[in-house]
Amino acid sequence: MESCDVAVIGGGSAGLMAAAAAAQAGARVEVFERLPGPGRKLCATGGGRCNLTRHAAAEEIMAAFGKRGRFMAPALEKLDPPGICRYFAGLGVPTASEDGVHVFAASGRAEDVANALQKDCLKRNVRVRTGERVTSLLIEDGAIRGLEARGRRIRARAVILAAGGCSHPALGSDGSGHALARQAGHEIAEATPALVPLLAAEPWVGTLAGIVLPVRLWIRDSRPGGRRVTEGPMLFTHSGISGPATLDISGDVAVALQNGDVTLCAQVAPGLDAGAWSARLEETAQKDGGRRTLRATLAMWMPARLADTLLDRERMNGNMRLAGLSHANRDRLAALLGALPLKIRGAGGWARAMVTRGGVRLKEVRPETLESRLVRGLHLAGEILDLDGPCGGYNLTWAFASGRLAGCSAGHRAGDG
User: In this model, does residue 391 exceed pLDDT 70?
Assistant: First the structure.
Protein backbone atom coordinates (compact mmCIF):
# COMPACT_ATOMS: atom_id res chain seq x y z
CA MET A 1 0.00 0.00 0.00
CA GLU A 2 1.25 3.50 -0.87
CA SER A 3 1.98 5.77 2.06
CA CYS A 4 3.01 9.25 3.14
CA ASP A 5 3.26 11.11 6.41
CA VAL A 6 0.66 13.80 5.66
CA ALA A 7 -2.02 13.69 2.97
CA VAL A 8 -3.66 17.00 2.04
CA ILE A 9 -7.07 16.87 0.36
CA GLY A 10 -7.47 19.96 -1.80
CA GLY A 11 -4.88 21.97 -3.72
CA GLY A 12 -6.25 25.44 -3.09
CA SER A 13 -4.99 28.32 -0.96
CA ALA A 14 -5.34 26.52 2.38
CA GLY A 15 -4.25 23.13 1.02
CA LEU A 16 -1.05 24.32 -0.65
CA MET A 17 -0.09 26.43 2.37
CA ALA A 18 -0.76 23.44 4.63
CA ALA A 19 1.31 21.13 2.45
CA ALA A 20 4.31 23.48 2.45
CA ALA A 21 4.07 23.95 6.23
CA ALA A 22 3.83 20.20 6.91
CA ALA A 23 6.81 19.53 4.65
CA GLN A 24 8.80 22.26 6.38
CA ALA A 25 8.11 20.39 9.64
CA GLY A 26 9.86 17.37 8.13
CA ALA A 27 6.90 15.33 6.89
CA ARG A 28 6.57 13.50 3.57
CA VAL A 29 3.54 15.23 2.07
CA GLU A 30 1.19 14.47 -0.80
CA VAL A 31 -1.60 16.72 -2.07
CA PHE A 32 -4.70 15.26 -3.72
CA GLU A 33 -6.42 17.71 -6.08
CA ARG A 34 -9.42 16.62 -8.14
CA LEU A 35 -8.89 19.22 -10.89
CA PRO A 36 -6.18 19.00 -13.59
CA GLY A 37 -4.12 21.61 -11.74
CA PRO A 38 -3.93 23.19 -8.27
CA GLY A 39 -4.75 26.79 -7.33
CA ARG A 40 -7.50 27.31 -9.92
CA LYS A 41 -9.81 29.26 -7.62
CA LEU A 42 -6.94 31.33 -6.25
CA CYS A 43 -6.05 32.42 -9.78
CA ALA A 44 -9.59 33.73 -10.27
CA THR A 45 -9.87 35.74 -7.04
CA GLY A 46 -10.05 39.51 -7.07
CA GLY A 47 -10.79 39.59 -10.77
CA GLY A 48 -7.47 37.87 -11.39
CA ARG A 49 -5.54 40.22 -9.10
CA CYS A 50 -5.88 38.27 -5.80
CA ASN A 51 -6.49 40.46 -2.76
CA LEU A 52 -4.42 38.09 -0.63
CA THR A 53 -4.72 39.92 2.71
CA ARG A 54 -5.17 43.41 4.16
CA HIS A 55 -3.22 45.76 6.38
CA ALA A 56 -5.13 45.03 9.56
CA ALA A 57 -4.49 43.79 13.08
CA ALA A 58 -5.55 40.27 14.00
CA GLU A 59 -8.35 41.67 16.19
CA GLU A 60 -9.85 43.50 13.21
CA ILE A 61 -9.68 40.37 11.06
CA MET A 62 -11.44 38.30 13.72
CA ALA A 63 -14.10 40.96 14.32
CA ALA A 64 -15.02 40.93 10.63
CA PHE A 65 -15.99 37.25 10.93
CA GLY A 66 -18.50 37.94 13.69
CA LYS A 67 -19.06 35.99 16.89
CA ARG A 68 -17.12 32.94 15.69
CA GLY A 69 -14.09 35.01 14.75
CA ARG A 70 -12.26 34.31 18.04
CA PHE A 71 -11.76 30.76 16.78
CA MET A 72 -9.16 32.18 14.40
CA ALA A 73 -6.83 33.54 17.09
CA PRO A 74 -4.29 30.66 17.19
CA ALA A 75 -4.09 30.55 13.38
CA LEU A 76 -3.54 34.31 13.12
CA GLU A 77 -0.91 34.09 15.82
CA LYS A 78 0.88 31.56 13.63
CA LEU A 79 0.51 33.66 10.46
CA ASP A 80 -0.90 37.20 10.58
CA PRO A 81 -1.29 39.67 7.67
CA PRO A 82 2.29 41.03 7.93
CA GLY A 83 3.49 37.43 8.06
CA ILE A 84 1.57 36.63 4.88
CA CYS A 85 3.26 39.54 3.11
CA ARG A 86 6.69 38.41 4.33
CA TYR A 87 5.99 34.83 3.27
CA PHE A 88 5.17 35.74 -0.32
CA ALA A 89 7.97 38.30 -0.54
CA GLY A 90 10.33 35.48 0.46
CA LEU A 91 8.98 33.48 -2.47
CA GLY A 92 9.70 36.29 -4.91
CA VAL A 93 6.21 37.80 -4.89
CA PRO A 94 6.40 41.26 -3.29
CA THR A 95 3.08 42.81 -2.29
CA ALA A 96 1.64 46.28 -2.71
CA SER A 97 -1.35 48.25 -1.44
CA GLU A 98 -2.77 51.11 -3.46
CA ASP A 99 -5.14 52.30 -0.73
CA GLY A 100 -3.11 51.32 2.33
CA VAL A 101 -5.59 48.58 3.24
CA HIS A 102 -6.06 45.95 0.53
CA VAL A 103 -2.92 43.95 -0.27
CA PHE A 104 -2.24 42.48 -3.72
CA ALA A 105 0.72 40.95 -5.45
CA ALA A 106 2.77 43.91 -6.74
CA SER A 107 2.54 42.40 -10.22
CA GLY A 108 -1.26 42.50 -10.08
CA ARG A 109 -1.35 38.84 -11.12
CA ALA A 110 -3.14 36.23 -9.00
CA GLU A 111 -1.25 33.56 -10.94
CA ASP A 112 1.98 34.73 -9.33
CA VAL A 113 0.54 34.01 -5.87
CA ALA A 114 -0.66 30.55 -6.89
CA ASN A 115 2.62 29.73 -8.62
CA ALA A 116 4.61 30.83 -5.56
CA LEU A 117 2.69 28.39 -3.36
CA GLN A 118 3.28 25.58 -5.84
CA LYS A 119 7.00 26.40 -6.08
CA ASP A 120 7.28 26.35 -2.29
CA CYS A 121 5.69 22.91 -2.27
CA LEU A 122 7.99 21.72 -5.04
CA LYS A 123 11.05 23.03 -3.19
CA ARG A 124 9.97 21.02 -0.13
CA ASN A 125 9.43 17.84 -2.19
CA VAL A 126 5.65 17.85 -1.82
CA ARG A 127 4.04 15.53 -4.33
CA VAL A 128 0.96 17.11 -5.93
CA ARG A 129 -1.40 14.54 -7.45
CA THR A 130 -3.82 16.20 -9.87
CA GLY A 131 -7.00 14.64 -11.23
CA GLU A 132 -7.24 12.68 -7.96
CA ARG A 133 -10.66 12.73 -6.30
CA VAL A 134 -10.59 11.40 -2.73
CA THR A 135 -13.63 9.20 -2.20
CA SER A 136 -13.26 8.20 1.44
CA LEU A 137 -11.18 8.54 4.59
CA LEU A 138 -9.57 5.54 6.26
CA ILE A 139 -10.45 5.68 9.96
CA GLU A 140 -9.64 3.02 12.55
CA ASP A 141 -10.19 3.14 16.31
CA GLY A 142 -11.03 6.84 16.22
CA ALA A 143 -7.86 7.81 14.35
CA ILE A 144 -7.10 8.67 10.74
CA ARG A 145 -5.13 6.03 8.85
CA GLY A 146 -5.20 7.46 5.35
CA LEU A 147 -7.56 7.88 2.42
CA GLU A 148 -8.87 6.24 -0.71
CA ALA A 149 -8.61 7.83 -4.16
CA ARG A 150 -9.39 6.26 -7.53
CA GLY A 151 -9.75 2.87 -5.86
CA ARG A 152 -6.30 3.06 -4.25
CA ARG A 153 -5.73 3.14 -0.51
CA ILE A 154 -3.00 5.52 0.65
CA ARG A 155 -1.77 5.25 4.22
CA ALA A 156 -1.05 8.49 6.08
CA ARG A 157 -0.26 9.38 9.66
CA ALA A 158 -2.24 12.61 9.33
CA VAL A 159 -4.76 13.98 6.85
CA ILE A 160 -5.59 17.65 6.25
CA LEU A 161 -9.05 18.24 4.81
CA ALA A 162 -8.85 21.50 2.84
CA ALA A 163 -11.29 20.75 0.03
CA GLY A 164 -13.27 23.98 0.39
CA GLY A 165 -17.03 24.36 0.53
CA CYS A 166 -19.49 24.51 -2.35
CA SER A 167 -18.64 27.83 -4.03
CA HIS A 168 -17.42 27.93 -7.64
CA PRO A 169 -17.52 24.14 -8.21
CA ALA A 170 -15.83 24.53 -11.59
CA LEU A 171 -12.79 25.88 -9.73
CA GLY A 172 -12.62 23.12 -7.15
CA SER A 173 -15.13 23.50 -4.31
CA ASP A 174 -17.97 21.12 -5.11
CA GLY A 175 -19.10 20.00 -1.64
CA SER A 176 -17.09 16.77 -1.70
CA GLY A 177 -15.16 17.93 1.34
CA HIS A 178 -18.39 18.11 3.33
CA ALA A 179 -19.15 14.49 2.44
CA LEU A 180 -15.73 13.41 3.71
CA ALA A 181 -16.20 15.39 6.92
CA ARG A 182 -19.57 13.72 7.46
CA GLN A 183 -17.90 10.34 7.02
CA ALA A 184 -15.66 11.29 9.95
CA GLY A 185 -18.78 12.05 12.00
CA HIS A 186 -18.70 15.82 11.70
CA GLU A 187 -21.87 17.90 11.66
CA ILE A 188 -22.13 20.36 8.76
CA ALA A 189 -23.82 23.72 9.25
CA GLU A 190 -26.09 24.12 6.22
CA ALA A 191 -24.17 25.56 3.30
CA THR A 192 -25.47 28.67 1.55
CA PRO A 193 -23.79 30.91 -1.05
CA ALA A 194 -21.96 33.99 0.28
CA LEU A 195 -20.16 36.87 -1.43
CA VAL A 196 -22.57 36.43 -4.31
CA PRO A 197 -24.66 38.86 -6.42
CA LEU A 198 -28.35 39.14 -5.54
CA LEU A 199 -31.37 38.87 -7.83
CA ALA A 200 -34.00 41.61 -7.63
CA ALA A 201 -37.74 40.95 -7.77
CA GLU A 202 -38.62 44.38 -9.18
CA PRO A 203 -37.91 45.17 -12.87
CA TRP A 204 -36.92 48.79 -12.26
CA VAL A 205 -33.68 47.68 -10.60
CA GLY A 206 -32.48 46.11 -13.86
CA THR A 207 -33.05 49.35 -15.79
CA LEU A 208 -30.24 50.92 -13.76
CA ALA A 209 -27.60 48.36 -14.83
CA GLY A 210 -24.10 49.79 -14.70
CA ILE A 211 -24.74 52.44 -12.06
CA VAL A 212 -22.46 52.26 -9.01
CA LEU A 213 -23.60 53.96 -5.83
CA PRO A 214 -22.09 54.27 -2.33
CA VAL A 215 -24.70 52.86 0.07
CA ARG A 216 -25.39 51.51 3.51
CA LEU A 217 -27.32 48.20 3.36
CA TRP A 218 -29.32 46.18 5.87
CA ILE A 219 -32.12 43.62 5.85
CA ARG A 220 -35.48 45.22 6.61
CA ASP A 221 -37.37 43.86 9.61
CA SER A 222 -34.21 42.30 11.05
CA ARG A 223 -33.86 42.50 14.82
CA PRO A 224 -32.25 45.88 15.71
CA GLY A 225 -29.76 44.20 18.04
CA GLY A 226 -28.83 41.58 15.46
CA ARG A 227 -28.94 43.81 12.39
CA ARG A 228 -25.99 43.40 10.04
CA VAL A 229 -25.10 46.62 8.23
CA THR A 230 -22.66 46.90 5.35
CA GLU A 231 -21.28 49.95 3.59
CA GLY A 232 -19.54 50.47 0.29
CA PRO A 233 -20.21 50.56 -3.45
CA MET A 234 -23.34 48.85 -4.76
CA LEU A 235 -23.57 47.99 -8.46
CA PHE A 236 -26.91 47.74 -10.23
CA THR A 237 -26.93 44.81 -12.69
CA HIS A 238 -29.39 43.61 -15.33
CA SER A 239 -30.71 41.03 -12.86
CA GLY A 240 -30.26 42.76 -9.51
CA ILE A 241 -27.39 44.17 -7.46
CA SER A 242 -23.74 43.38 -6.82
CA GLY A 243 -20.64 45.24 -5.63
CA PRO A 244 -18.79 45.06 -2.28
CA ALA A 245 -21.67 46.22 -0.04
CA THR A 246 -24.01 43.68 -1.65
CA LEU A 247 -21.50 40.83 -1.53
CA ASP A 248 -20.77 41.43 2.15
CA ILE A 249 -24.42 41.08 3.16
CA SER A 250 -25.30 38.39 0.61
CA GLY A 251 -24.61 35.48 2.99
CA ASP A 252 -27.15 36.83 5.48
CA VAL A 253 -29.63 37.36 2.65
CA ALA A 254 -29.11 33.83 1.29
CA VAL A 255 -29.92 32.40 4.73
CA ALA A 256 -32.99 34.65 5.11
CA LEU A 257 -34.21 33.68 1.61
CA GLN A 258 -34.84 30.17 2.88
CA ASN A 259 -37.98 31.63 4.49
CA GLY A 260 -39.13 33.57 1.42
CA ASP A 261 -38.37 36.86 -0.32
CA VAL A 262 -36.16 39.36 1.51
CA THR A 263 -36.25 43.15 1.39
CA LEU A 264 -32.99 45.04 1.67
CA CYS A 265 -32.86 48.70 2.62
CA ALA A 266 -30.30 50.88 0.88
CA GLN A 267 -29.34 54.24 2.35
CA VAL A 268 -28.55 56.13 -0.83
CA ALA A 269 -25.78 58.10 0.90
CA PRO A 270 -24.20 56.31 3.88
CA GLY A 271 -25.02 58.14 7.10
CA LEU A 272 -27.96 60.13 5.70
CA ASP A 273 -31.25 58.85 7.11
CA ALA A 274 -34.72 60.18 6.28
CA GLY A 275 -34.35 63.12 8.66
CA ALA A 276 -31.02 64.15 7.19
CA TRP A 277 -32.36 63.93 3.64
CA SER A 278 -35.42 65.98 4.56
CA ALA A 279 -33.18 68.69 6.04
CA ARG A 280 -30.94 68.59 2.96
CA LEU A 281 -33.88 69.07 0.60
CA GLU A 282 -35.27 71.94 2.68
CA GLU A 283 -31.88 73.65 2.88
CA THR A 284 -31.40 73.36 -0.88
CA ALA A 285 -34.83 74.88 -1.51
CA GLN A 286 -34.02 77.83 0.74
CA LYS A 287 -30.67 78.50 -0.93
CA ASP A 288 -32.00 79.07 -4.45
CA GLY A 289 -35.60 79.91 -3.67
CA GLY A 290 -36.72 76.47 -4.77
CA ARG A 291 -36.19 77.24 -8.47
CA ARG A 292 -34.29 74.03 -9.17
CA THR A 293 -36.35 71.07 -10.40
CA LEU A 294 -36.69 67.88 -8.40
CA ARG A 295 -34.73 65.97 -11.03
CA ALA A 296 -31.89 68.51 -11.08
CA THR A 297 -31.82 68.59 -7.30
CA LEU A 298 -31.44 64.83 -6.91
CA ALA A 299 -28.94 64.73 -9.78
CA MET A 300 -26.58 66.80 -7.62
CA TRP A 301 -26.13 63.78 -5.36
CA MET A 302 -26.71 60.75 -7.60
CA PRO A 303 -26.71 59.72 -11.28
CA ALA A 304 -29.54 61.41 -13.19
CA ARG A 305 -30.84 58.03 -14.38
CA LEU A 306 -31.28 56.89 -10.79
CA ALA A 307 -32.96 60.18 -9.88
CA ASP A 308 -35.45 59.75 -12.74
CA THR A 309 -36.19 56.16 -11.74
CA LEU A 310 -36.81 57.02 -8.09
CA LEU A 311 -39.09 59.94 -8.98
CA ASP A 312 -41.04 57.76 -11.42
CA ARG A 313 -41.31 55.09 -8.72
CA GLU A 314 -42.89 57.65 -6.37
CA ARG A 315 -44.97 59.14 -9.20
CA MET A 316 -43.43 62.56 -8.72
CA ASN A 317 -42.91 64.98 -11.58
CA GLY A 318 -39.20 65.46 -12.03
CA ASN A 319 -39.78 68.86 -13.70
CA MET A 320 -41.56 70.21 -10.63
CA ARG A 321 -39.77 73.05 -8.90
CA LEU A 322 -38.43 72.18 -5.49
CA ALA A 323 -40.48 75.03 -4.06
CA GLY A 324 -43.64 73.24 -5.19
CA LEU A 325 -42.87 70.07 -3.25
CA SER A 326 -45.27 69.62 -0.37
CA HIS A 327 -43.97 68.80 3.11
CA ALA A 328 -45.63 65.40 2.88
CA ASN A 329 -43.98 64.57 -0.45
CA ARG A 330 -40.64 65.91 0.74
CA ASP A 331 -40.77 63.58 3.73
CA ARG A 332 -41.89 60.69 1.51
CA LEU A 333 -38.95 61.28 -0.85
CA ALA A 334 -36.56 61.66 2.09
CA ALA A 335 -37.77 58.36 3.56
CA LEU A 336 -37.12 56.66 0.22
CA LEU A 337 -33.57 58.01 0.00
CA GLY A 338 -32.86 57.12 3.62
CA ALA A 339 -34.03 53.51 3.23
CA LEU A 340 -34.67 52.54 -0.40
CA PRO A 341 -36.41 49.13 -0.36
CA LEU A 342 -34.95 46.50 -2.69
CA LYS A 343 -36.97 43.29 -2.85
CA ILE A 344 -34.64 40.30 -3.35
CA ARG A 345 -35.94 37.06 -4.84
CA GLY A 346 -32.76 35.02 -4.86
CA ALA A 347 -28.98 34.81 -4.68
CA GLY A 348 -26.70 34.20 -7.63
CA GLY A 349 -26.07 30.54 -6.79
CA TRP A 350 -22.99 28.43 -6.24
CA ALA A 351 -21.50 29.06 -9.67
CA ARG A 352 -21.10 32.76 -8.80
CA ALA A 353 -20.48 32.54 -5.06
CA MET A 354 -16.97 33.44 -3.89
CA VAL A 355 -17.23 31.65 -0.55
CA THR A 356 -19.47 29.25 1.36
CA ARG A 357 -21.43 30.13 4.47
CA GLY A 358 -21.66 27.02 6.63
CA GLY A 359 -19.41 23.99 6.92
CA VAL A 360 -17.87 21.88 9.67
CA ARG A 361 -19.04 23.06 13.09
CA LEU A 362 -16.23 24.86 14.90
CA LYS A 363 -17.08 23.21 18.22
CA GLU A 364 -15.87 19.92 16.71
CA VAL A 365 -12.38 21.26 15.88
CA ARG A 366 -9.54 22.28 18.21
CA PRO A 367 -8.63 25.90 17.41
CA GLU A 368 -5.06 25.46 18.74
CA THR A 369 -4.19 22.80 16.13
CA LEU A 370 -7.23 22.62 13.82
CA GLU A 371 -7.37 18.91 14.62
CA SER A 372 -10.74 17.20 14.70
CA ARG A 373 -12.10 16.50 18.18
CA LEU A 374 -13.74 13.38 16.72
CA VAL A 375 -10.93 11.73 14.74
CA ARG A 376 -7.31 11.90 15.84
CA GLY A 377 -4.90 12.97 13.14
CA LEU A 378 -7.58 14.60 10.96
CA HIS A 379 -7.03 18.34 10.54
CA LEU A 380 -9.22 20.86 8.74
CA ALA A 381 -8.37 24.18 7.12
CA GLY A 382 -9.91 26.96 5.08
CA GLU A 383 -13.40 27.28 3.68
CA ILE A 384 -14.53 23.82 4.79
CA LEU A 385 -14.94 25.22 8.30
CA ASP A 386 -18.01 27.23 9.31
CA LEU A 387 -16.29 30.60 9.01
CA ASP A 388 -16.77 33.23 6.31
CA GLY A 389 -15.90 36.89 6.23
CA PRO A 390 -16.56 39.92 4.01
CA CYS A 391 -14.75 40.56 0.77
CA GLY A 392 -11.48 42.45 0.82
CA GLY A 393 -8.81 39.90 1.70
CA TYR A 394 -10.41 38.48 4.84
CA ASN A 395 -11.18 35.00 3.54
CA LEU A 396 -7.78 34.48 1.92
CA THR A 397 -6.14 35.61 5.16
CA TRP A 398 -8.07 32.83 6.93
CA ALA A 399 -7.18 30.31 4.21
CA PHE A 400 -3.44 31.01 4.49
CA ALA A 401 -3.39 31.25 8.29
CA SER A 402 -5.47 28.12 8.86
CA GLY A 403 -3.44 26.24 6.26
CA ARG A 404 -0.20 27.15 7.99
CA LEU A 405 -1.53 26.09 11.42
CA ALA A 406 -3.03 22.82 10.18
CA GLY A 407 0.13 21.99 8.23
CA CYS A 408 2.47 22.67 11.15
CA SER A 409 0.25 20.69 13.52
CA ALA A 410 -0.15 17.73 11.19
CA GLY A 411 3.53 17.73 10.22
CA HIS A 412 4.72 17.66 13.82
CA ARG A 413 2.13 15.02 14.71
CA ALA A 414 3.24 12.79 11.86
CA GLY A 415 6.85 13.22 12.91
CA ASP A 416 6.05 12.34 16.50
CA GLY A 417 4.13 9.28 15.33
Answer: yes
